[in-house]
Design brief:
single chain; 77 residues; mainly beta; 0% helix; elongated
């Protein structure tokens, strides 16, 4: 129930800000991450939230404000 890792950035490592997108354009954004060493063991849910940085308002997806990507099982070191 807590955020273990968060990454805030413009798509494509800042090269494709959303203000330049055409309607219905698909923009690829490859992003990796490392869980912190003190991440608790167990299941971590992966999700994406897109928001307007000027207002901090989350944008809606067909499934709500959060797009769930899957889960990762974290094992103790």
């Amino acid at each position: 129930g807590r955020v273990v890792y968060q990454r805030d950035s413009e798509p494509a490592n800042g090269l494709r800000p959303t203000v330049g997108w055409a309607p219905d354009e698909i923009v690829q954004d490859d992003a990796g991450f490392f869980l912190p060493a003190d991440a608790p063991a167990g299941v971590c849910r992966l999700a994406i939230i897109v928001y307007n940085p000027a207002t901090a308002q989350n944008l809606a997806t067909p499934s709500g404000e959060m797009l769930r990507l899957g889960e990762v099982n974290v094992t103790p070191r």
